[in-house]
Structures are given as C-alpha cells and as structure tokens.
Amino acid sequence: MRKNRLCYILLLLLSGLTSAMALEAGVAYVVYATPDRTYVEVNIEIAAGSITFKTVDSLHLQASVDVLILVRSGEAVDNYEKYRLNSPLVTTPRNLLDVKRMFAAPGEYVLEIALQDVHDPQNSQTLTYPLRVEAANEPYLTAPLLLRSYRRDSTSNPFVKHGIFMEPLPFAFYEQRATRLAFFVEVYHGERLGPNGYAVRYYVEQDMGNGNTTLVASGAQRKKPSRLDAILAAIDISQLKSGNYTLTVELRTEYNQLVAQQKVAFRRSNPLLDIDLSKAEISEEELSKYFVADLSEENLRYSLRAISALTWADDAEALKNLLAGSDLYGMRLYLLRHFAQKNPNDPEAAYLEYMRLAGAVDQKFHSGFRYGFETDRGRTFLRFGRPDDLIRVDDDPAAPPYEIWIYFNFPKTHQRNVKFLFYNPSLAGEDFILLHSNARGEINNPRWEVVLYSRNAINQIEGSNYHDATHMQRNFNRNARRFFEDF
Predict the structure, then answer these.
(1) Residue 378 located in a structural domain
(2) What are the start-end ranges of the E strands in 89-196?
(3) Same domain for 448 and 420?
(4) Domain boundary among 228, 249, 274
C-alpha cells in the first residue's frame, strides 16, 4: 500500500495534474441554538483520493473545491453559503475538512450541498438532506456530533467550541487505528428537569441484521441544573469488530425518565479482530497492506529473533522452524500475528515500541556470541521488565562474576520478592547464564550455591556428600546466599 502511495505521488508530480473518478464527501450537520437564534452547523469532509491535487511548486500540492450550501424550503432559499475551499499546501494529498454555521428559523427545510472540483469541473456531487430546526424552549438534546479527535484550544479556529478544538468525523467511519469514539452534544434548559439535575446516558449497539442489535458499550454523565450545558464523552472502541453500529444519546431526569433521545450511525473497520489470527491464513495481497511487507529479510529475521524471548512451548518451536527455513511469507505472517495480538488496532505501533526496547536490550546485554536479547539476562528483561534492584559481584575470589536481580512485585506469577541469579562461568565477555530463580516456572536449582562456588566446592560444602549438597560453608567472602536470601 505504501509503495502504491509513493507511486501515486510520483505520477502526480510528473504529470502536474491528476483527475479523480468521482468526488466523495461526508457531511455531518447538527442544529444548535444561541440565546436568541437557532442555527445549523454543517461539517464537510472531502476524500483526498476523489479530487484533483495540482502541483504548486516542486514540493507542494493543492486542491480546490467550489462549495454551495443551501438551506431551502421548497424552491425558496432561506440561507446559503458559496465559497471556494482550498486545501493547505501539502506534500501528500489529504482530506479537506470545513465547517460552516448558518442561521435558520424553526421550520422544515432541505439542506443541499453542491461540490465541484475546481481542477476538474466534471467531477462534482450534490447531496441533499431533510433538515428540521426546532426552537429550544423546553429541555432539548442536540444530535451527537462524532469526533475524530479533540483537545483544549483557546484560539478562534472555527472548529473550537467551549474552549475545545473538535475535529469532526463527517464520514462516520472509524478505521482500524481508532481506539475511541468521541462525541459532542449540547443540552438546553436542563434546569427545568428538576433542582437535582439530570443525566445524559449513551450507549453503542451493533447492528446484527434483521433488526437485531447487541449492546457493546455504555456510559453516563450526571449534570447539575443549567440552561446550557455541553457534554463531551469518549467510549473505548478498540475491541469493536468491523460492522455497522449506532450511538444513542439520551436525556433523562434524575428519576431516569426519558426526556429526549438522539441517534447517529457509524461504521467500524477492524480487520485483525475479524479473524482468528492463530489459525486463519492471510493472503499475500492482504499482508502487503501491513508494515511487515516493508521489512527486508535481514530485518525480518532480526525482528523474529527479538520476539523469541516472548515465545513458549509450541510457539517457540514454530518460530525456530521458521527461522531455520526461507519462507518469508510465513515469517511476515508470524510477525504480524504476534503484534496484532498485542494491539489489533495498530500492530505497527506495537512492533515499533517493542523493537526500540529490544534494540536497547541488544546493546546492553550483547555478549559477542549472540544478540543481547537472546542472552538469559536479555530474555529475562524482555519478559519481566527492569528489576527493582540488582546486585553485581565481580570480586568474589571463589566464584565467577554473578548478578542477582530482584523484583519486589512479580505480576507474572503473583509472587513477591522474586530473584534471578545469573553467573558467567566462562569468564567470556558478558555471557551470563541463568543459574537459579525462585520465580515459578523458571530454572530452580537447589544446588545453585555449590555450582557457583564449584572451584573449591568439594572441600567447602556443608555435610559430607558432595552430590547431595545444596549449601556451602559460610565464610567472610562467600556472600551469594546472604544476598539471595536476605535482600
């Protein structure tokens, strides 16, 4: 996909002009009110791939669309906006986004929006919607405006309301990387719902077909009495599968009586949640859409070796067999599956975050014989994180260099005060080996002290049977057991 995008941009720069097949626009409109008048807010988004971007200079592109917005009753035009919408100067085509606010008295109207590509006059679209404007004399709930994002903002940007910059989502489509649904509504005359305030309840339902729906998420906010209130809320949609959904927002009294209800439909795409990644195959064409398609064989093998620390049992054996062969498709599929299970909304982000950590671990524990993340210390770091404390001993005359890693809390096994002892019997570089741990499921060697002090173990063990001995005699320099058990 990325290669195709680069080719598209290159052709655009070479030709100077490219025509879109059909102008594609999304529209979201909501009726609001000021203390004196009602108005309709019209949010328009035009897909970058459906309009013409023309070269402005050697680096920049720009698109322009003529926009005509009519609020009419029959053939009579009650209000209109006519203007040219220019994209900013960009290096890569991107969607155009605009908002207009138009006063309209209470009544029944038709909202008509005509769009024409300036650089390709044959490329146009006209959209019409029924528009009902009501006077907010009683408790009133506006239709929810779906948002792509929001943030605090004190500027005069047209997308700023109530001190918040709100980027609308006119196409009502949440792509794979979206992890939350945000929306905005206003409530008028809430003070008339009682002295103790009111509640705004919201929930998301999935359309299952044949008129059936399933509740997938919900939330609520309680509000104090107020003539005007703004509600900005967000719902986690990271686990929503691809499909059609409806957001419902309700205005309710303190006694849970329904006063008003508004709905908006939206679509969700989350392809990696739609399949069982542990079993299903993905076509090479589909695989080419993800980050793994851009990895060279060298980077692919390095990445797979980096995640080997996180694999167990059959999974580890499957990875070992992959690395021993030359099946690049299988390697890419394995890597995608691994990080899609970590973050199905954005597996590439999970991959990049992990590889930054793996790279640092490789540098820290590189032994000269293998990558740092393949050493016992590197694997332990990647599996369980940085230890809370670490004791390193290089000057014990009866033992090779050793380290004791201490984890005060160990969520993996729900243990406390977990320890790992690594030692370097070969004295070669930093190739430390895990000798013993009290973590469940890890190497547990009752004779670890005897092995650590094997240079003079026969003469210094506790007891008379070397093969059954587990402890060494205490002396001034022999501190490993004290460090392991007392700290």
Answers:
(1) no
(2) 96-103, 107-117, 124-133, 140-141, 145-152, 160-161, 164-168, 173-174, 180-188
(3) yes
(4) 274
Task: Among 274, 304, 334, give the residue marking a domain's end.
Answer: 274
Stronger pLDDT, 56 or 135, i.e. the higher one: 56
Q: What is the pLDDT of residue 278?
A: 60
Listed as own residue / partner, the contacts of 8-16 with beta carbons closer than 8 Å and 24 or more positions apart are: 9/91, 9/92, 9/93, 12/53, 12/55, 12/61, 12/93, 13/55, 16/54, 16/55
Q: 3 vs 7, 289, 332, 350, 459, CA distance in Å?
A: 6, 10, 17, 22, 69
Q: What's the pTM? A: 0.72
Residues 110 and 59 reside in one and the same domain:
yes
Say if residue 270 is in the same domain as residue 280: no
Instruction: Residue 297: give the domain boundaries.
Output: 276-371
Alpha carbons 78 and 234: distance in angstroms, whole number: 36
> Which long-range contacts does 106-110 make (Cβ < 8 Å, 24+ apart)?
106/38, 106/133, 106/134, 106/135, 107/73, 107/132, 107/133, 108/73, 108/132, 108/133, 109/71, 109/72, 109/73, 109/78, 109/133, 110/70, 110/71, 110/72, 110/73
Domain count, the chain: 4
Q: Dihedral (C-alpha) 337, 341, 347, 353: value to the nearest 10 degrees?
A: -110
**Alpha carbons 245 and 203: distance in angstroms, whole number:** 10
Under a CB-based contact definition with an 8 Å cutoff, are residues 224 and 173 in contact? no
Do 251 and 213 fall within a single domain? yes
Enter the tokens of residue 83.
């203007």
**Given this model, what pLDDT does residue 312 score?**
81
CATH code: domain of residue 60: 2.60.40
Question: Which two tokens mark 454?
Answer: 């094997």
224: left (phi over 0), alpha (psi -120 to 50) or beta: beta
**Residue 35 resides in a domain:** no
**DSSP3 helix / strand / coil % (the chain, rounded to 5):** 25, 40, 35
**CA neighbor of 50 nearest in space, from 28, 90, 9, 18:** 18
Residue 37 is assigned to a structural domain of this protein: no
pLDDT in tens, 379-438: 999 999 999 999 999 988 889 999 999 999 998 888 999 999 999 998 877 889 999 999
Measure CA of the first residue to CA of the last residue in the chain; give whole Å: 54
Residues 400 and 360 in one domain: no
Q: How many helices (H) and strands (E) does the chain have?
A: 10, 24
Identity of the residue numbered 421: L
Question: In degrees, to the nearest 5, what angle opens at C-alpha 165 toward C-alphas 160 and 171?
Answer: 100
- The 10s digit of each residue's pLDDT in 51-63 is 999 999 989 999 9
> Do residues 11 and 110 both lie within one domain?
yes
Mark whether 121 and 110 lie in a shared domain: yes
Please state, rounded to an integer, the average pLDDT across all residues of the chain: 89
Judgement on whether residues 235 and 342 belong to the same structural domain of the protein:
no
